[in-house]
Amino acid sequence: WQDIWWYRLLTNLFNYSTIIIPCFLLVFVIKRTKYLERAGRFFNNLLLKLFIDGRELSSFEEINMKKPAYNTSQNSSATLSLFSFENKFVATTVKLCFYSCGLLLSYLIWGIVQERVMVYEYKDNTTGRQKGERFTNSQFIVFANRVLAFVVAVVGIRMLEQPCHRAPFYKYIYCSFSNIMSSWCQYEALKFVSFPVQVLAKTIKVIPVMLMGRVISRRSYSVFEYITASMISAGVFIFLITSEDGPGSKSSDSTHTSISGVVILIGYLMFDSFTSNWQDDLFNKFKVTSLQMMAGVNFFSVLLTWVSLMEQGTFTEALSFASRHPSFTLHILILSITSAIGQLFIFATIANFGPATFTIVMTIRQGLAILLSCIIYGHQVRLSGGIGVAIVFASLFIRVY
């Protein structure tokens, strides 16, 4: 049963529910009984950050507003101002190059190591066996990545003296859960499709992002945006149908695994689309900083994945695998470091240059990731598949323009 991906998925969801359901029952009871209005000082201090946002603190001023209000814009500019040149153009250019190189380097390394961990076997040097074993616990990789990201966020908040409380803390659990699921789907998909297919399929998420935007934020989109989204979908479809790992391949086993991979990738797209839209809503509604968002989301991600791993008894299995394969431990460490650094560069790029510039950089990164994967791991892309790739990236650049 552990070898069946949908069984692992259902098991994970059941384990997460043991944390999420009690949490929301607590929220319901607190709000329904108006407990905060009658609670003592200790419990107010403890529960205030969980249930009350920064706009509703007037009645709790004596408890939570001892320090002056935090100025988001000033601290953000202080955080992100890495260069101070007299020539503004030179300063902007150097800063853009720095952020772009940081993004590209972090996520290109992350992508290469991700494929190595999930697709290829590790040989046990202690026993001398020729046959290796693959690491199949995607959830443990998510846990390891989130631990380091949470530590980095907390250290950043302390160093910059930002307040921990901005939005009700329980609000982060929504996007934390979807973030965990999107990451799990991302790693799990590599068991069924090649890395180039996975990377290219990610570009299609503009469609579910638009759909989620209409549902969550009531946003409207132009006809031009729907046209470019359709072009991206067409390019991805051409690449998938002509890929050696796609449904058009000769092997019946490849067809089966490709169908499983496509289902998992659809799950990734939906969960990831919800995550970005929910985070955007928190940014706009509660004016949280990027470090506060990073800390809140990763806190619940660590909690949920750790509880799930312990309940399934797979945490010790993953540690045992790491002890047998020191190179695996090194790969997990690299994944965690590049993921945490990459998150910092993402927030800094969007804050300084906007989402359009960020999209350009990430589009370049996706193209380079496919190229590096083909060179390092020997993936082959047919001419028709190359046309599909060209349509996708042309659509992305037209959209940005």
Overall 3D form: globular
Helix-and-strand structural type: mainly alpha
Percent of sequence in beta strands: under 5%
* Number of spatially distinct domains: 1
What does this structure look like?
The chain is mainly alpha-helical and 401 residues long. The protein has one domain (83-400). 75% of the residues lie in helices and 0% in strands. It has 15 helices and no strands. It has helices at residues 5-33, 41-51, 61-64, 72-80, 88-119, 138-159, 172-189, 195-202, 206-216, 223-242, 252-286, 290-312, 315-324, 326-377, 383-400. α6 runs antiparallel to α12 and α6 (138-159) crosses α14. The longest helix is centred in the last third of the chain and has 52 residues, at 326-377. The protein is globular, with a radius of gyration of 23 Å. The model is unreliable at 54-85 and 246-257 (pLDDT under 50). Belongs to the nucleotide-sugar transporter family. SLC35B subfamily. GO terms for molecular function: 3'-phosphoadenosine 5'-phosphosulfate transmembrane transporter activity. Keywords: Membrane, Transmembrane, Transmembrane helix, Transport. InterPro entries: ATPase_P-typ_TM_dom_sf (IPR023298), SCL35B1-4/HUT1 (IPR013657). It is a multi-pass membrane protein.
